[in-house]
Amino acid sequence: xxxxxxxxxxxxxxxxxxxxxxxxxxxxxxxxxxxxxxxxxxxxxxxxxxxxxxxxxxxxxxxxxxxxxxxxxxxxxxxxxxxxxxxxxxxxxxxxxxxxxxxxxxxxxxxxxxxxxxxxxxxxxxxxxxxxxxxxxxxxxxxxxxxxxxxxxxxxxxxxxxxxxxxxxxxxxxxxxxxxxxxxxxxxxxxxxxxxxxxxxxxxxxxxxxxxxxxxxxxxxxxxxxxxxxxxxxxxxxx
Length: 239
Description:
alpha+beta; about 30% helix; five-stranded antiparallel β-sheet; single chain; Jelly Rolls; about 20% strand; about 240 residues; four-stranded antiparallel β-sheet
């Protein structure tokens, strides 16, 4: 919110693991501001949709994703695309990127702004209705499925004077899971020898992704001066 060159948004990150470490006194204070209702909402989304989506993916690729999703590696995030930002005229709410995990569930407040890139026409951005619930696959799904599932690049455009809120649930494989095509899937796109040999895990892959999204979100500077390589182009090179 204070960096005019980064994404113009405010975020609150939650997860089942983090929530358990919140001191009781602070949790009691937050409860008065609706914190418990927020957690209940995310837990309902988790219990209602995550297993269903995993089952659909199983049917698409012919392999059980549950074998690398045993620990519940979930993250909850609230996004506030507030009207009061470092750059009031910027339309950059969230820069173009592809998520790292297995899939993402995006729930919106009715305000438009989310756009997805046309898979057949890169560079063509398609607006998503503001009241739509959206499920997007990430890079881990691409690898685990052998390329049978395609990740979706997306972004958020701001409209000056309009506040936009969204709640997002991220689902990723277990941090220590080996990141390679699952046994039994038909590999339909090329991957690096390192990926095919199972020489990296989900945690290592997230670290690579994190450097890029930290720069995009304004939390980290490049060690190499001008950082012209996009997050997605670097990941394509890595995998």
